[in-house]
Records
---
Amino acid sequence: MIKITQLKIPLEGGYDEILSAAAKALKCPKRAIISLEITRKAIDSRKKNNIFFVYNVEAEVDGDENSVVSKSGSSKVSIGERFEYKQPELRRKSTLRPVIAGFGPAGMLAALTLAREGLNPIILERGNDVDKRNQDVRNLWQNRELNTDSNIQFGEGGAGAFSDGKLTTGIKDKLCRKVFLELEAHGAPNEILYSAKPHIGTDKLGKVVKNIRKEIVSLGGEIRFGCRLTNIIVVNGVIHGVSVIEQGASRDIETDALILAIGHSARDTVEMLFNKGIRMMQKPFSVGARIEHPREMIDAAQYGSFANHPLLGAADYKLACHPEHGRGAYTFCM
Ligand SMILES: Cc1cc2nc3c(=O)[nH]c(=O)nc-3n(C[C@H](O)[C@H](O)[C@H](O)COP(=O)(O)OP(=O)(O)OC[C@H]3O[C@@H](n4cnc5c(N)ncnc54)[C@H](O)[C@@H]3O)c2cc1C
C-alpha cells in the first residue's frame, strides 16, 4: 500500500479531485489506482483568502508499488503499512472468570478483549446503565438529588459519556487506531477514522456504548450495574476474590484476575487500595479550566470571509505555551 500525504483539495472538491491529486502525486493515470482510502482530513486555514482541505490517503496501485514510489520522486509518497491489530496470545490457564471494575472506555475495551477470547469476564459498574444513568443525571439537574454511584462521572460509558464525544488524546500510540476502529464498528460515524478532529456526537455516544455492551454480553460477558467494588481479597499476596456491594447487599466473587478501570474520580476505591497496601504509582496530571467564546468570534478569527461556509462547520483552535519555568499550558478538547 502506498501512503500519500498533504493532498491539497478545494473545499468543494470531492472524491474525483482527491483521486486526480493522488494520481498526479504518483505520476500515474487515475485508472492505475485500484483503491483509495482517506486516512486523514484536515482544514488548512492559514491563509484566510485561500482555505482548503488537506488529505492523507492510502492507495493500492496496479503494478509494483516500490517502483511507483521511486518514480514519483516526491517526499510525500512512501510505502505504508496498514494497521493490523494482533490480539495478544492467550496464556491464561485458570478457569475462574476475570473481573473488571469500571465500565468506562478502559473497562469497555478490556471487557471486549477478554470476552472475544472466551474468558467470560464479569464487569462491575457502580453506576447504572446509560438509560437509567440519564434519569439519574436529570434528577440531579432538576431536583438537586445526587446519586453518589450513578451521575456524570459514574455509570455505563464512564466520565465522558455526557460530553459531546470528541476523541481527543495527546498520545501517539498505534493502539489508538484500534480504539477508533472499535468505536466505528459499534456505530460511531465513519469520519472518526480520518478526521483530524474526530468527534462522535452526544446523540450517537449512548448507542455506541450500548452496542459494545451487547457484544460483550453476546460473547458470555456479564455486566453488573449498580455493583461497587469495595474490597480485594488477598491471601499471601495473591488475589482470591473481590467484595462488592450490589443493590445494597454485600457479597464476594471468587477470582484470581482483576482489572481496575475505575477512572479518576473513585476516591473511595483508591483509598481502599491504599489502605490495603496495594502498590500504586502517581501520575502527573493537568488542571483544566473551561473557557467559553462566542462561536462567531472564533469562526471569524480562523476562517475570515469563509466563516459560516457550509463545508467548514464550527472553527476551532489549538494553542500551547512553554514558559521558562517549565509548567506549560495547552488547550484540550475544544
Ligand atoms: C465532563 C467530562 C467531559 C469529558 N469530555 C471529553 C471529551 O470530549 N473527549 C475526551 O477525549 N475526553 C473527555 N473527557 C475525559 C474522558 O472522559 C476520560 O479520559 C475517560 O472517561 C477515562 O476513561 P476510563 O475508562 O479510564 O475512566 P472513566 O471513564 O472514569 O470510567 C471509570 C468507571 O469506573 C466506575 N467505577 C469507579 N469505581 C468503581 C468501583 N469501586 N466499582 C465499580 N465501578 C467503579 C465508574 O462508575 C466509571 O463508570 C471528559 C471527562 C469529563 C469528566
Note: The first strand starts at residue 2 and ends at 10.
---
Amino acid sequence: MKLTDNLYLYPEKGIFDCNTYVINDNLTVVIDSGSTQFLPALIEDLVKDGIDPKDIDIITNTHLHPDHCSANIALKEISGGEILFHPLHKKFYDAALKDVPKLLGLPSIELKEDGYLDNNKLNSGEMEFELIHSPGHSPDSICFYCRKVGILICGDVIFNQNTGRVDLPGGNGEQLKHSIEELSQLIIEYLLPGHMDIITGTEKVKNNFEFVKQNILRWL
Ligand SMILES: [Zn+2]
Ligand SMILES: [Zn+2]
C-alpha cells in the first residue's frame, strides 16, 4: 500500500510478524522485513506495487526483535540487498537475538550484518531520514524521521493508543517515557508503528501522544 510518493506500507500478516515499510527512492530500503514465514506474501505484495525485489539495496530494522528481523537473511538471498545495522543494533545484539527469543521460547537468531547505517541519517535520494535513538521498549530502538514529509517510522516505541512492552530483556519504562516525550515534540504527519494501525494527520498523531502519556505511560 502506497503511503507517499516514495513510501509503502505492508501491514503485519500474522502473529510474530510486523509492519514492513519500503522506501522506493533512488535507493530501495526495506525497514523491518518481518517473519520468514510471511516473506513469500510480502514479495508478492511488492511485485504487485511494481517494486522488483532485485532492486532492494538496503535491508535494515527499527530494532532487532525476532518479529522485525527474522526474514532479513532470506530477503537478502532473494534480493541481493545488504543488511545494514545501526551501530546500536550491534551493541545490543545479544539481548535482542539471544535473550529475547529464549524468554519467548523461540530459537535464537543468527544475523550477520554487511555494514552499518550512518549514526545519524539515512539518505535514500529524494528522502532523508534522521535516526533517533528511542530506548525503552528495547535498548536498540531506532526511529526513522523524515522531517520534510513528517514521517516517523517508530518500531515498537509507540502504537495507536499503546506503547511497546518494557518487560523484555533491555526494556526500561523510564527510558520509554523519556523517548516518547522527545518524539512527541516532532511534527508528524504519518506515525508509522511496527504493529497495528498507522495514524495520519498531525492532529490525530498529537492526540495519540497525549492519550498514551495520560493512559499508558503513567502506569509504567
Ligand atoms: Zn519489539
Ligand atoms: Zn514488534
Note: The pocket of zinc ion (ligand 1) is lined by residues 63, 65, 137-138, 156, 164 (CB under 6 Å).
